[in-house]
Amino acid sequence: MLRLNFELVPDSCWYSNLRTILKPTEWQIVRRDALSRANGHCMICGKKTTRLEAHERWAYDEKTCTQILTDVVAICHDCHQVIHIGRTQLMGDINRAIDHFQKVNNCSYSDYIKALGEANKLHQRLSKVDEWKLDLSYLLKFTK
Ligand SMILES: [Zn+2]
Q1: Cα distance between residue 142 and residue 136, in whole Å
Q2: Contacts of residue 91, Cβ cutoff 8 Å, sequence gap at least 6
Q3: CA of 52 to the centre of ligand 1 (A)
Q4: pLDDT (tens digit, 0 to 9) for every residue of the chain, 144 residues total?
Q5: I need a labelling partner for 30 at 20 to 30 A (CA). Which of 40, 55, 101, 141 fits?
């Protein structure tokens, strides 16, 4: 298991960004909860930073075609760049992302290539699903 891995959202998902689904006030509650749990440290690599970014984690149930929100975490910019590697390849600093991946996972460049291949394979398979249902029951804990 890699500490820091790619999380590629399937092309067939309508909702890849919680921010666009929630009201701004609701998103702030979810974001603040993640930031308070992080307590000034990236929740993946542990780096101390004042600039944490909220990141939604999704699971995909292929049997029921359901996209499930499992967590919202606060992470550093470098980890975020690795997670969204597709976007970083297009408009980010890919070499920096590759270095960060290797450093956090304590692995080689060939491990990076292997993990990227697996992530792309999974992404292709999940993108074949026509339409994903959305499970946001994670958010219920904020209504109590
Ligand atoms: Zn980090």
Answers
A1: 11
A2: none
A3: 9
A4: 899 999 999 988 877 688 888 999 999 999 999 999 999 999 999 999 999 999 999 999 999 999 999 999 999 999 999 999 999 999 999 999 999 999 999 999 999 999 999 999 999 999 999 999 999 999 999 987
A5: 101
Distance, CA 49 to ligand 1 centroid (Å)? 9
**Residues around ligand 1, an ion, CB closer than 5 A:** 42, 44-45, 47, 76, 79
Report the separation in Å between the CA atom of 48 and the middle of ligand 1, taken as the mean of its atom positions: 9
Domain boundaries, the chain: 18-139
Helices (H), the chain: 18-21, 24-38, 77-83, 85-91, 94-105, 109-126
